[in-house]
Design goal:
Structural class: alpha+beta
Radius of gyration: 21 Å
Number of strands: 11
Order of helices and strands: HEHEEHEHEEEHEEHEHEHHHHH
Helix content: 25-40%
Number of helices: 12
Largest sheet: 4 strands, antiparallel
Distance between the termini: 62 Å
Number of domains: 2
């Protein structure tokens, strides 16, 4: 019955016993001193996958910023969350304690997915699925009974280093990622961009797809072409329009997109950094204009100072 409900809502799934997950976390991440008490009522972690389309529109060029492919279409938290909640409700109706989550649990979804045999972790730390490559969302359902699945044969990156070589932040090395250097990470962090990071902001306003785009494991994949995750006009954002928009209008126009949750300050900060890298002649105007906004966000203004310092050759 569990298999039937999962097959109706998700593209793939595997499972791992809670005790095995805890054992492996303690073995490999002992320095984190994690609290596993939230897992106490449960016996099994079901890791579910929902794929999203691969193709992305050709870059419009200077003046625009890409949104990472996973954030195209309707916010996957809403879409995937509804599907997993539907499964959890059916499980509960049969007396099985269940808890569904998408990105809001202290559980490490990628690590659980790897332990379950849903795929392997590439050098870029993405889970790589045999059918969907890296183009999939992960979610979990915790249940209070045993549920076993058969893992896929373990794959690996072999001698390939394409993602390592292409990473714009030099964040990757074999089987390791320095998260602080990852472009996708710092485009989403609420902090000042440093003078080292700003010049690396070339075309991505939110996130980064470079390591996925060059990965050979993504070449022959067959993601499910769901309309809800298709690219639309908001897959690339006009940078100056983003700088001119109010927070109220931002939430009205983009509230159903996954990139909007980081807020207007992050998106405007990133837009300024890209305009700097693209040597836009109107950058001084927008730097001055932005100085009069977001006055209670000091890291936003520190980024402006760093852009000014770069322009003047001070850093």
């Amino acid at each position: 019955m569990i298999e039937k409900w999962l097959n109706e809502q998700v593209d793939d799934y595997k499972s791992v016993p809670v005790k095995d997950y805890i054992t492996m976390r303690k073995k490999h991440f002992a320095h984190l001193e994690e609290d596993f008490s939230f897992l106490k009522p449960f016996d099994t972690i079901i890791v579910a996958a929902l794929s999203f389309p691969k193709l992305q529109a050709r870059y419009k060029g200077k003046g625009y910023g890409y949104i990472s492919r996973y954030a195209h279409g309707k916010d996957y938290h809403l879409v995937f969350g509804e599907r997993l909640k539907a499964i959890a409700n059916k499980l509960e109706s049969q007396g099985i304690k269940a808890q569904a989550n998408v990105d809001i649990s202290p559980l490490d979804e990628r690590f659980a997915a790897y332990l379950s045999g849903l795929g392997f972790l590439g050098h870029n730390q993405f889970l790589i699925h045999p059918t969907y490559g890296t183009h999939l969302y992960l979610g979990t359902i915790l249940i209070d009974q045993s549920f076993k699945t058969t893992p896929y044969l373990l794959d690996d990156c072999g001698t390939c280093t394409r993602c390592i070589d292409a990473c714009p932040g030099d964040a990757l090395s074999p089987h390791h990622m320095d998260i602080e250097k990852c472009l996708s990470h710092f485009t989403q962090e609420k902090r000042a961009l440093t003078t080292e990071e700003i010049p690396k902001m070339k075309s991505f306003l939110f996130g980064c797809d470079v390591c996925q785009n060059v990965c050979p494991k993504n070449k022959a994949i067959m993601p499910v072409e769901r309309d809800v995750f298709q690219s639309d006009e908001n897959a690339q954002i006009h940078l100056k329009s983003m700088l001119d928009i109010s927070n109220k209008k931002l939430m009205r126009e983009y509230r159903n997109y996954a990139f909007a949750w980081r807020g207007i300050s992050v998106l405007k900060r990133n837009a300024l950094a890209i305009l700097y890298s693209q040597k836009d002649p109107e950058l001084p105007h927008y730097l001055e204009k932005m100085r009069g906004t977001l006055l209670n966000t000091p890291w936003f203004h520190e980024t402006i100072d760093n852009i000014e310092a770069l322009k003047e050759g001070k850093k």
